[in-house]
Design a protein that fits this description.
single chain; alpha/beta; DNA polymerase, domain 1; Beta Polymerase, domain 3; 4 domains; 24 helices; binds 2'-deoxyguanosine-5'-triphosphate; binds calcium ion
Length: 593
Amino acid sequence: MRGQRVIPPPHTPRGVKRAPAVHNADVAAVFEEIADLLEIENANPFRVRAYRTAARVIGDLNREVSDLLAQGADLTELPGIGADLAGKIQEIVSSGASAMLVKLRKHTPPALIELLKLPGLGPKKVKVLYQELDIHSLDQLARAARDGRIRNVHGFGAKTEAKILEAIAAQAGSTGRFKLAAAAQYAERLVAYLKAAPGVGRVIVAGSYRRCKETVGDLDILVTASRSSPVMERFVSYDEVADILAQGETRATILLRSKLQVDVRVVAEESYGAALHYFTGSKSHNIAVRKMGQEMGLKINEYGVFRGRQRIAGETEESVYGAVGLPYIEPELRENRGELEAARGRRLPKLVNLSDLRGDLHAHTKATDGHNSLREMAEAAKARGLEYLAITEHSRRLTVAHGLTPQRLLAQMDEIDRLNAELKGIILLKGIEVDILEDGALDLPDDLLGRLDLVVAAVHSRFELSREKQTARILKAMDHAHFSILAHPSGRLIEQREPYDVDMTRLIRHARERGCFLEVNAQPDRLDLLDIYIQMAKEEGVLLAVNSDAHSAHQFDYLSFGVGQARRGWLEKNDVLNTRPLKELRALLARTL
Ligand code: DGT
Ligand code: CA
Ligand code: CA
């Protein structure tokens, strides 16, 4: 068999690049995709089935169909293959492609093709999701699954919903890193599981996770226990384990089904601080601290701080820092970006906490692309201890999100007035997330914007503009009399879309001159502004708003990730606009030029 293969079709001229060998699996895949796309198009079920049958027949052949063709075999002798399909097979084998598939792909929204690639989602389900929930991207699918909206769709249920989440996570995992919020879902369940092992003291996730990095490569879990073997046994028998990569007496590494890798280390209680410091990192911070120790004649490792053979610290992280003459440094600062100098000079920031937030200045309702009513959003914000919530729908230009026209915005403003008269313990602010148009104008009339409590403005189009044009566009928007906050200032979507090219330093300086603000958007795929620019904004004296950008009532949960990002940017309570009481906030917003 082998010797007979790869005979080029007779019409292939010498020296012309040949298409790579086409295998039966390739032909089958083309037919499967054709069947899927036909099904989404509501094609005749018999036609769909014919392609599926052909895919199976070719896929199961014990000889390469390209060999058969090269030998002049008649493919219509195969079960289920008529003249039409035989012709298509010939086409695929000789050209490596199918004109029919190319045409079908052109008709189908590209996002649906992406969804189809997700294991467990066939064309029937994709079609239902598209039609009933208006889902046309992987991101929207993930959001809907997390919000529990998929289980209510006919034919789905909670189990399918969970499977979808797992499949999405697996796909995210294939890029190597996990977004912090996704990692948190796996970490929390695993930590609770490990805590139940016999003899366990503390269980804490260290590494980049503890430093609140926007993505994590793997989880590093530290456990204190008198005996390590029960912890190790329990860890490797966790029900989400796909593979045990390493297993020793006090450490093990596993791969979860989601493709997230987890390291666990068991240490004695007396080494807790030293081990936590070591495994929290960052590596560069650790090396710098160790060097300080060396200069003082100390040895620092994951078991403790030693002078000669004597252990002088290590039970707590404070004791480790104390041994080198430093105050405690918060994990989010440990990137060797000036925190050691600041610690030496006793100039460390007192970082903002989630509980410092008094309000949220960016949220959507089902009037546009959110999922809950005004009242539901207000109640959810109140339940989280917030005192005010700005409703900031998209503006008309953003048609995919059913952006508001002036009339619809006016109607919502009236509704907010009515609701505010009724609600207790929470105040809704009238706002908008207005589009910054390509020329820097805002997407709604000035007089209308002037009647709002605040104007959040954002770029949602023309990401590809040159640095010069993009910068000029946003600077001009900031000059607008009613501009309050620049939302998700860099425009990046983590691992999906790079930031647009813009001179962030100029935007920050301009914000200071105009008396306006920048956002730290807490959505897990945004976490935008980026930490280094947050720090720069702080140094320039620009306040930042840590906003959820919630599209449903439980997305106020995301605020904790926004606060994590703010902490990575060294922000203190006073650097954050929405830690201010409402009266003070109103005064600050009114100062916007
Ligand atoms: P990741 O997982 O890529 O998001 O980033 P990390 O920071 O969690 O890195 P990882 O998991 O490789 O290691 C966890 C911590 O262990 C790291 O933050 C610092 C510490 N560590 C790892 N390797 C070394 C090393 O060679 N020297 C020192 N001093 N510390 C290390
Ligand atoms: Ca890690
Ligand atoms: Ca690790």
